[in-house]
Specification:
Blueprint lengths: L11 E2 L3 E2 L2 E3 L8 E2 L1 H16 L5 E3 L22 E5 L36 H11 L4 E7 H10 L10 E4 L5 E6 L22 H8 L20 H4 L4
Parallel strand pairs: 3-5, 7-8
Antiparallel strand pairs: 1-4, 2-3, 6-9, 7-9
């Protein structure tokens, strides 16, 4: 199915732990994805470990057959997405039970404009950059304050920032979205990313919204799932 609303057949599950990663909060998370998505996160963990980073905490992918996942982006429906916590501080290995109760810590200060210097580390830059270089990756979503700090720290070789996109929330994790797998004719990729690094004026828009009143909350009306999902989700 598409890069947004949809479902998935043939999903595989990321193991609860492996070389360089641990899944967290399994009681209300799910770790099924397209084979390329799971392989990509395993590769990210391997590359992060080679770069000297501690084990990654991995959170939501998709449900076993995709479809709506409460409180998540629509793109968490198709097995093409994974959340990776931005926590590169040293930490001891935890049992599965111990990983149930941990909460992510926001790297963004309450003002929404700056980062907590005690939590933001050079390793965060390394980890996000590694994510943008994964095979088949489309984009990486982070909070706009995190994107702004990346723009300041990237230096002259900043082309990789093109794939790092600002969004609301995402103060403690990055959301990695992969392209449709080859040969999946019913899958639709997201619109192309605008040219450039996304720093400067395009990024300032997000900060300009911080002082404005919050828009009224409108109850969501999720779009209907594609017809091809009915059989996959057992609705036929």
């Amino acid at each position: 199915m598409g890069g947004g609303v949809g479902c998935i057949a043939g999903a595989v599950e990321l193991p609860a732990e492996g070389p360089g990663w641990e899944t967290v909060r399994q009681d209300h998370s799910t770790f099924w994805g397209a084979p390329g998505t799971v392989a990509g996160i395993e590769l990210l963990a391997d590359r992060a470990r080679a770069a000297g980073l501690p084990a990654l905490y991995i959170n939501d992918f998709s449900l076993p057959r995709g479809g709506p996942l409460a409180g998540k982006h629509a793109t968490h429906q198709t097995g093409l997405d994974a959340d990776v916590w931005l926590d590169v501080l040293p930490k001891p290995p935890l049992t599965v039970a111990e990983r149930e109760g941990i909460e992510p810590r926001s790297l963004v200060e309450p003002d929404g404009r700056s980062l907590d210097p005690a939590l933001w580390q050079p390793g965060d830059v390394t980890l996000i950059r590694l994510a943008t270089g994964l095979p088949g990756v489309d984009r990486v979503l982070v909070n706009f304050a995190i994107k702004a700090e990346l723009c300041r720290e990237a230096g002259p070789d900043a082309a990789w920032l093109h794939r790092v996109r600002p969004w609301w929330g995402h103060t403690s994790h990055m959301h990695i979205h992969f392209l449709c797998p080859p040969g999946q004719t019913e899958c639709r990729d997201l619109p192309p990313i605008p040219a450039g690094t996304g720093c400067g004026a395009p990024l300032q828009w997000w900060f300009d919204q911080l002082g404005k009143p919050a828009p009224p909350v409108v109850p969501p009306h999720p779009p209907p799932l594609p017809a091809a999902c009915r059989a996959i989700l057992g609705e036929e």
